[in-house]
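TODO from last week: model NADP-dependent succinic semialdehyde dehydrogenase.
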Amino acid sequence: MAIATVNPATGETLKTFDPLNAGEIEDHLVRAEQAFQEHRTTTFGYRSERLLAAADLLEADLDSISRTMTTEMGKPLAQARAEAKKCVKTMRWYAHHAEELLADEHPDPADVTDSGAARAVVRYRPLGTVLAVMPWNFPLWQVVRFAAPALMAGNTGLLKHASNVPQTALYIEELFRRAGFAEGCFQTLLIGARAVEDILRDPRIAAATLTGSEPAGRSVASIAGDEVKKTVLELGGSDPYVVLPSADLDKAASVAVTARVQNNGQSCIAAKRFIVHTDVYDDFAARFTERMSALTVGDPMDEHTDVGPLASEQGRSDLEELVDDAVHRGATALCGGRRPPEHPAGWFYEPTVLSGIDPAMRIHHEEAFGPVASLYRVADLDEAVTVANDSPFGLSSNAWTRDPDEQARLARDLQAGGVFFNGMTASHPGLPFGGAKRSGYGRELSGHGIKEFCNMTTLWYGPES
């Protein structure tokens, strides 16, 4: 794929970029290693000042970077602003909390005296330069939620961003430089996917993190495993949204729309499979379909637009194939299911609700990356859990019930990295985020996320120390 800004609302190529050559990549690696040797010795106060400066600069740039994101990948402008604001919040959160999260731990001497130690300390030290392979769907947020904790921990970063968001990628590098981080602390690599393996195998790369597709995750994990390097992977999701009879149906249906079409439906943690108890299925389906049908599809720069275009022509084609396969095998499109005729240019697709899904359909097992919802009717809680877990993915999940016993059962049995009761899945800097099964491993955000790229070091002091 060419490294280029292509406006998905029009299909127009706005700007292209040449990929780095081997010599330029080497220069970036040298700078990253040199920067790490200095950055790892800086204080938390020093790093915090610079991360807070980056947050202030981003806040000042809010309008311009939001427009850049919308131009490059098509999310509605209001959602781009919300993404940038979330990045500001997360930078400030780590700037204020990193020192506490990574504070030395002191085991009780009485618990370790039989080791011969007079005392012991557990210390979190940075690993080195971390290679981040990031996707286009949240082009600022996905990077910041890695970069903020990594930099605060004393690591340096190299970013290989998606090829369709190069201007956002370059902005992030410049943002950290403007904030006062040393040259080489955070750099963007404008490279294609084929260049990743050689970089990941370079001994100056200590670890890698990837958010993206399952095939991309398999590739990075395989290479890193061969090199015995730490990885954190956040891959696809096909999150269930379980609705049981005690739910507030009107609120559940309203939130369901946002949970499905946020970011034009292109979110790993978007609810995709709506699993509804038969006693409330017809009522929920009617409310949900009515709201999905009422969404405004159009220019993502228009403040009144609810759903913009998909980020790429291929992405729309892939989504169409899933919908067409489902309908061909007996599913019913309660709304949508086509390209909107009023938008012949760009890569738009109507918000769609499919009913009558069964395991023979591709969409039952594959991730629908766009504004398409699958409705399932289930007889009871047991069947709801079975259908929810009948997926290779396990990123997050949503459950609507006010029954404490049902909540306890779902919390125990749903196979996912998160269970959100009576609300939609969302990430927050203070809560760990990540998945199970083929949705990846490791955690981002919170204290768990900042420790992923630290060397947990045991310091043992003998009686003579």
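Done. The chain is about 40% helix and 20% strand.
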